[in-house]
Amino acid sequence: MSIHIVTDSTSYLPGGYAEQHGIDIVPLRITIDGVLYREFVDIASDEFYMKQESGAKAVTSQPGRRSLSGSTRGCWRTRRMRFSVFISPAL
Fold first, then answer.
1. SS3 category, 68
2. What span, in angstroms and rounded, lies between the C-alpha atoms of 31 and 60?
């Protein structure tokens, strides 16, 4: 049985590393002034920091269950064990 690694975008893996090693990255959710973004999908780091510097209020939250479901379905289809690494909710 093979192992499939899943992490969230707070892992900040170097560019191309996840693709090279077959790691799924689930984006963190960021709400800025009431608008929901997915980290590195809907908003890049430089845009996020520009909004912060201009006084925007940002709140982050863990990836939703729906974001994880695609990875889980893929593991069931290919009979791979999923190993997930996420940031602690206690932080």
1. helix
2. 6
**pTM given for the model:** 0.70
In angstroms, the CA 17 to CA 9 distance is 13
Backbone dihedral angles phi then psi of residue 85, each to the nearest 5 degrees: -125, 120
Write down the pLDDT at residue 84. Answer: 65
Q: Any idea which residue has 């290919």 for tokens?
A: 78
Query: Which letter, b or e, does each residue of 6-18 get, where b requires 16 or more Cβ atoms within 10 Å of its Cβ?
Result: bbbbbbeeeeeeb
pLDDT at 46: 93
Count CB atoms within 10 A of the CB of residue 46: 8
> Two tokens at 14?
């170097």
- Structural domains of the chain, with CATH: 3-85 (3.40.50.10170)
